[in-house]
Design goal:
This protein has 325 residues and is an alpha/beta fold. It has two domains: 150 residues, Quinone Oxidoreductase, Chain A, domain 1 (Alpha-Beta Complex), CATH 3.90.180; 143 residues, NAD(P)-binding Rossmann-like Domain (Rossmann fold, 3-Layer(aba) Sandwich), CATH 3.40.50. Helices cover 30% and strands 26% of the residues. The strands form three sheets. Strands 3, 4, 5, 6, 7, 14 and 15 form a seven-stranded mixed β-sheet that branches. Helix 7 links the parallel strand 11 and strand 12. Helix 3 packs across helix 4, helix 3 crosses helix 10 and helix 9 crosses helix 10.
Amino acid sequence: MKAMLCKAWGGPDDLVFEETDDPKAGPGEVVIDIHASGVNFPDILLIGGKYQFKPDFPFSPGMEVGGVVSEVGEGVSLFKVGDRVMSTCGDGGFAEKVAAPERKVFKLPDGVSFEQAAGFPVTYGTTYHALKDRGELKPGEVLLVHGASGGVGLNAVELGKQMGATVIGTVGSDSKMDIVKEYGADHVFNYSTQSIRETVKELTGGQGADVIYDPVGGDAFDESLRCINWGGRLLVIGFASGRIPEAKANLVLLKQCQIVGVFWGAWTERNPDLCREQFDTLLNWCAEGKLRPHISMRFSLENSPDALKALAARKATGKVIVNIR
């Protein structure tokens, strides 16, 4: 099969496109013929040796895929050859085939395309777990979403509205405001020209946000602690700004707020049945048209390094997809 391989730690331009051996389905695994693969910021960290786990060389980036089961290993009971599926494979997605554990594979309902599936699990899975389980978002609360035009950010806007919240989105340029409004945000502003603290306070009558969804870190995190409501929950999703912030404990005390970590990948390993249950809900919402995965950029497998570079340069809104078939 053809694959985009990482043979040494580096950047997108260090990846190598070549033929490699087809994967085989071991016990408890299925092989998926990949139709499309999602692109995520952790893929960039993965090939640079900066992610939480480090695969053995050579490996392919690509932690989520949509495709068709082509081989079933011993002990697999949930899938058969020919099933349309998505998978949170973790790595191996920038290739024509991938082997994935049964627990990380999910059937697709009719009406959900392979492209939608490829860009679905990491961002929607992370965001639904964050808002539902970690943030305990309630109808009528105010949700502040940083990086609202990005992959997880746009999902947070969409799911926040689905869960009954008033949603405020922040973006880094005026050109990204329209897509955030289209996905349901009640208010959107450009944090590079408006103060996060002052704007959120103004929009909430001085109260602040009840739940803050932060995949950005850096200054956005610092400002979030200044505009969080009493008893609010600040969800730490990631650090796309490049700076890992530090919290001042006096602000946490004075607001009686919580800083809550969200490590969805580790949570799925500890709660596979609950993860499958949540994906059933999310995929059904997608099939019913209640969720509309937004894909802004598409690349071929051979040009997948450009997909990573586009994501790193924040050129995309929503998801970036690599089409394999």
